[in-house]
Specification:
Blueprint: H1 2-24, E1 27-34, E2 38-39, E3 44-47, E4 53-55, E5 61-65, E6 70-75, E7 82-86, E8 92-96, H2 103-111, H3 118-122, E9 124-128, H4 140-147, E10 151-154, E11 157-160, E12 173-176, E13 179-181, E14 194-200, E15 216-221
Parallel strand pairs: 1-8, 12-15
Antiparallel strand pairs: 1-2, 1-5, 3-4, 3-6, 6-7, 9-14, 10-11, 12-13, 14-15
Length: 227
């Protein structure tokens, strides 16, 4: 009887070891950026199942050993915190952290070495509804013109000074809630419905290819949770 009990105990122990080893035998690849294109260096990623904290490399990449069902917490000084749920299907995680409003957070981002090229971050102008009362403006064109001296409005198009093309249109690419739209679409959006506006110039707009040659205007509208 004792031999049977001992045998069952050993079998259970072996099964536990196999399951545990199997659950951790998985690596999820990921990348952390800000403004959709600027890699974040030494951003922290905490793996819920193991409590392990890993960090992104100089390209913003990371490799997280985790369970097939797990959660990742991603953060960096001066930026928002994001939580990502991974399952057995997910193999690649792309996380974009928002730079928090205020000059101090931009200084944190640069001072803590989260961006390798400070000029890329400086090249991005961010207007946030937490800092500015967007409702005081009659339309988005007035809002952008009044808050960013590097931008002008010409014939209903947004022109970013210093980013003009020698050929074709000089209008900046407008990305509304992640989707490229025509400049004319902005007249249909009330400033009070806008959460943030980011003006991306120079190398920061390179991720958009030729379409971003004249700069990019990123507009995020409020969702139900923001109202």
């Amino acid at each position: 009887m004792k031999k049977i009990v001992s045998g069952l105990f050993l079998i259970c122990l072996m099964l536990m070891l196999v399951v545990d080893g199997y659950s951790q035998d998985r690596v999820v690849n990921g990348r952390v950026t800000t403004f959709d294109s600027i890699p974040l260096i030494n951003a922290s990623i905490k793996i819920k199942s193991t409590k392990q904290i890993i960090y992104t490399d100089t390209l913003g990449n990371f490799y997280a050993p985790c369970n097939y069902e797990d959660n990742l917490k991603v953060w960096a000084r001066g930026f928002s915190t994001e939580r990502v749920k991974v399952d057995s299907v997910i193999k690649l995680v792309i996380v974009n952290l928002d730079l928090k409003p205020g000059k101090k957070n931009r200084e944190y981002a640069i001072g803590y070495g989260h961006v390798s090229d400070a000029n890329k971050l400086i090249a991005v102008s961010n207007l946030n509804n937490d800092d500015v009362d967007f409702s005081q403006y009659t339309d988005i064109y007035e809002l952008i013109r009044g808050r960013d001296p590097s931008v002008m409005i010409l014939n209903g198009e947004i022109i970013i000074r210093g980013q003009n093309s020698l050929f074709g249109s000089n209008a900046a690419l407008v990305v509304l809630d992640g989707l490229p739209v025509e400049n004319s679409m902005l007249s249909n959006i009330a400033p009070i419905d806008v959460k943030s506006i980011s003006i991306v110039k120079g190398s920061g707009a390179a991720i958009y290819g030729a379409r971003g040659a004249n700069g990019v205007v990123l507009i995020e509208t409020k969702k139900g949770t923001d109202l």
